[in-house]
């Protein structure tokens, strides 16, 4: 099978770009649908609409309902169709971004992604995670093209809660762990081919940047400061991880995240990246990674507030039967867990979910 590498047409990152670099957005069309939730609209969306209007562009704002479901995608697509918009803007976090990409694909319109947090690697990809109305993982959906523009204002991201930056670090730290597993097994990536050398190099660089800068970036974010460390982590969370996971591949860590949707309760107060982070520890344990590597991840996680125990996941009293549901969903046919070179089944995943918890509590508490 051939190698495939895909990416957005343009990525722009820096402090103030959502105000000073709107030329990148303006040239895409004359009528924009602006998708964001009410909080984000009040925070930055209203000003963005005003700035684009001053430039002679028409903007139709639509409030996102909070869930990337097929019903929401159909609802907003119909609004976009009725208003004859030319470009879809996704402004906000991961689910808003995924919905915007889905709407753009439905209508065959270009999509611009303007993340207000660096909590996921969704902005650059031609993929969305679709959920049911109840918030259960449904499926991945793949699109004809990546966003035409990703515009990342680090001044806005620095003002977001530091926990969201940590979640992005958790999501991004899975990138190299999963990509190398795909390479080892010669598996297919989400881009539809084998990993390129470029994707592998980007994924490995992502891990390097995060271990070097994560702690400082978290401190800077807590002070709402844009610094070289914060810029580096935002780029790793957004661009390096985004290119790495899509053209390098997803494996067990993300499958476990999807598996967590099988159980109800307070675990869902955690973000995507926080749940992926625990999945990465499980993958490291199941693949037999050196204990020094596992410890390195656990140590960084604990310093920046990522989950390392079941208690951290709000699963203190979880039963084997409930975690088995996680294992079953994580290892179902066609899940990315099937792309690793070691044996995985529902029982092995369930036992590893408990085993990571037991190991961390014994060695780190």
From TrEMBL:
Catalyzed reactions per annotation: glycerol + NAD(+) = dihydroxyacetone + NADH + H(+)
Keywords associated with the record: Metal-binding, NAD, Oxidoreductase
UniProt EC number: 1.1.1.6
Domain Alcohol dehydrogenase iron-type/glycerol dehydrogenase GldA: residue ranges: 8-154
Metabolic or biological pathway: Polyol metabolism; glycerol fermentation; glycerone phosphate from glycerol (oxidative route): step 1/2
Pfam family name, one: Fe-ADH
CDD domains: GlyDH (cd08170)
GO molecular function: glycerol dehydrogenase (NAD+) activity
InterPro entries: ADH_Fe/GldA (IPR001670), ADH_Fe_CS (IPR018211), Glycerol_DH (IPR016205)
Alphabetized PANTHER family for the sequence: GLYCEROL DEHYDROGENASE (PTHR43616), GLYCEROL DEHYDROGENASE 1 (PTHR43616:SF5)
Similarity section: Belongs to the iron-containing alcohol dehydrogenase family.
Protein name, per record: Glycerol dehydrogenase
Organism: Enterococcus lemanii
């Amino acid at each position: 099978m051939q190698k495939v590498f895909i990416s957005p047409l343009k990525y722009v990152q820096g402090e103030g770009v959502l105000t000073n670099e709107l030329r990148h957005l303006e040239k895409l069309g004359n009528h924009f649908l602006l998708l964001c939730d009410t909080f984000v609209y009040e925070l930055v969306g209203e000003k963005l609409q005003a700035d684009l209007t001053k430039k002679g562009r028409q903007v139709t704002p639509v409030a996102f309902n909070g869930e990337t479901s097929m019903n929401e995608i159909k609802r907003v697509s119909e609004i976009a169709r009725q208003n004859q918009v030319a470009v879809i803007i996704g402004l906000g976090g991961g689910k808003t971004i995924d919905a915007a990409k889905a709407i753009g694909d439905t209508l065959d319109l270009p999509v611009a992604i303007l993340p207000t947090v660096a909590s996921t690697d969704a902005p650059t990809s031609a993929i969305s995670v679709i959920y049911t109305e109840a918030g259960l993982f449904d499926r991945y959906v793949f699109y004809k093209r990546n966003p035409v523009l990703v515009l990342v204002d680090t001044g806005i991201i620095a003002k977001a809660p530091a926990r969201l930056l940590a979640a992005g670090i958790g999501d991004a730290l899975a990138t190299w762990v999963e990509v190398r597993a795909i390479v080892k097994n010669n598996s297919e990536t989400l881009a539809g081919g084998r990993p390129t050398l470029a994707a592998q190099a980007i994924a490995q660089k992502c891990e390097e940047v995060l271990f070097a800068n994560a702690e400082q970036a978290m401190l800077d974010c807590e002070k709402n400061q844009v610094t070289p460390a914060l810029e580096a982590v935002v780029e790793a969370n957004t661009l390096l991880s985004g290119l790495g996971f899509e053209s390098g591949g997803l494996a067990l860590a993300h499958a476990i995240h999807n598996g967590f949707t099988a159980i109800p309760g307070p675990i869902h107060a955690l973000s995507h990246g926080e749940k992926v982070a625990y999945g990465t520890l499980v993958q490291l344990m199941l693949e037999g990674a050196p204990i020094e590597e596992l410890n390195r991840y656990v140590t960084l996680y604990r310093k920046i507030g990522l989950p390392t125990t079941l208690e951290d996941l709000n699963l203190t009293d979880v039963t084997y039967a409930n975690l088995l549901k996680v294992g079953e969903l994580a290892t179902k046919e066609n899940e990315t867990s099937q792309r690793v070179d070691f044996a995985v089944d529902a029982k092995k995943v369930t036992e590893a979910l408990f085993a990571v918890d037991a190991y961390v509590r014994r060695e780190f508490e």
